[in-house]
What does this fold into?
Amino acid sequence: MKAWCVHDGWPEEGCLLVYAETRNRARHLFVVHHPLIGDFEYRHTVATRAPKWDGLFKDERVLCDNSELPEGTPAVFWCDEAEA
It folds into this structure.
């Protein structure tokens, strides 16, 4: 399953890591599963491939934070501080 970082058009506010086969499916899952579902519209979502996390899951899923990654995963997809 392909990994996608999906956000609502404001990447500085964070993203969700979404596992889906296509970009549009990742965007759809983001809108359906986002904690603030009523605040976002599909057309404003942006999905960018995140191949670093490919293959961690075999089914579609939406991850909100690093605690949902499998134990032992070396990289984190979300942090409180912007990367330099």
